[in-house]
Amino acid sequence: MAVPLAFFGLFFALPVAAIVGRGLRTDAGWRWGRIGEVLTRPDIADVLWFTTWQALVSTALTLLIALPGAYAFARLDFRGRHLLRAVVTVPFVLPTVVVGSAFLALVGRGGLLDELWGVRLDTTVWAILLAHVFFNYAVVVRTVGGLWAQLDPRQEEAARVLGAGRFAAWRRVTLPALGPAVAAASLMVFLFTFSSFGVVQILGGPSYATLEVEVYRQTAQLLDLQTAAVLTLVQFAAVGAILGVHAWAVRRRETALKLVDPARTARPPRGVGQRTLLGGVLLTVALLIVLPLGVLVERSFDAPGGYGWDFYRALGDARATGTFLVAPLEAIGNSLRYAGAATAIALVVGGLAAAALARRGGPFTRGFDALLMLPLGVSAVTVGFGFLITLDEPPLDLRTSWILVPLAQALVGVPFVVRTMLPVLRAVDDRLREAAAVLGASPWRAWREVDLPLVRRAVLIAAGFAFAVSLGEFGATVFIARPDRPTLPVAVARLLGRAGELNYGQAMALSTILMLVCAVSLLVLERLRSDKTSGEF
Amino acid sequence: MTLLALEEITVRFGDRAVVDAVDLDVAEHEVVCVLGPSGSGKSTLLRVIAGLQAPDGGRVRLGGADQAAVPAHRRGVGLMFQDHQLFPHRDVGGNVAFGLRIRGARRAAYEPRVAELLELVGLPGAQRRAVASLSGGEQQRVALARALAPEPRLLMLDEPLGQLDRGLRERLAVELRALFSRLGTTVLAVTHDQAEAFALADRVVVMRDGRIAQAGSPLEVWQRPASEFVARFLGFDNVVPATVAGTTATTPWGPVPVPAGSPQGAHQVLVRPAGVLLGDPATGAGSGLDCVVAARTFRGTHVTLTLEPRTGPVLEAECDLAGAPAAGDRVTARFAPAEVVVLPAP
Amino acid sequence: MSTTKKLAGGVLAAALGVTALTACGGGDAEDKDAASGSGQSRTVTLVSHDSFNVTDSVLKEFEKTSGYTVKVLKSGDAGAALNAEILTKGHPRGDVFFGVDNTMLSRALDNGLFTPYEAKGLAGVKDEVQLDKAQHRVTPVDSGDICVNYDKAYFADKKIAPPQTLDDLVKPEYKNLLVTENAATSSPGLGFLLATVGKYGDEGWKDYWSKLKANGVEVVDGWEQAYNERFSGSAGGKKAKGDRPLVVSYASSPPVEVIYGEPQPAEAPTGVATGTCFRQVEFAGLLKGAPNEEGGKALIDFLVSKKFQEDMPLQMFVNPVLKDAQLPEAFTKHGVVVEKPENVAPEAIAENREQWVKAWTSLVVK
Question: Can you give the residue ranges of the ABC transporter domain (chain B) (predicted)?
Answer without folding.
Answer: 4-234
